[in-house]
Design brief:
The chain has about 130 residues and is an all-alpha fold. It is about 60% helix and about 0% strand. The chain is built from 5 helices and no strands. Helix 3 runs antiparallel to helix 4 (about 80-100). The protein starts with a helix and ends in a 7-residue tail after the last helix.
């Protein structure tokens, strides 16, 4: 969220609480329905249930899982050549994940070389400080 926007939201929530606007909400005092398929559209529930019962994950989740495992592996490697190989694999997985999405580019996961590239470009500028 935008800076300052959180504060406005919090103030409005507190004002609504003081006015008692949350006192008589539907379901107050009843347990939450924590059915795992509660937020899934009805036409997709059978497919999700089949995937879950088969211990299968959607491809996007599989790739995310592999990305997390590769990031963990990368943190423990000290050999430069091995680190480079793992980093290439990690960037490939991120590219693969980003290419499967149909969402905005703003939601893509950044690859792991952008900071180093920016630093290198910044240091190669004529007025760069050494």
């Amino acid at each position: 969220m935008l800076p300052g926007f959180n504060k406005i939201v919090e103030e409005r929530i507190k004002a609504a609480q003081r006015k008692g606007e949350f006192d008589n909400l539907h379901g107050t005092g009843k347990p939450l329905n924590l059915d795992e398929l509660n937020g899934v559209p009805e036409e997709l529930r059978l497919a999700y249930k089949l995937l879950k019962n088969s211990d299968l994950l959607p491809p996007e989740i599989e790739i995310k899982k592999e990305i997390r495992q590769t990031e963990d592996l990368l943190q423990n490697v000290t050999d430069v050549a091995e680190k480079y190989r793992i980093l290439k694999k990690l960037n490939y997985l991120i590219l693969k994940l980003n290419s499967t999405r149909s969402a905005s580019i703003a939601f893509e996961i950044p690859q792991h070389y952008t900071d180093k590239l920016a630093d290198r470009l910044d240091s190669s500028r004529p007025n760069a400080k050494d």
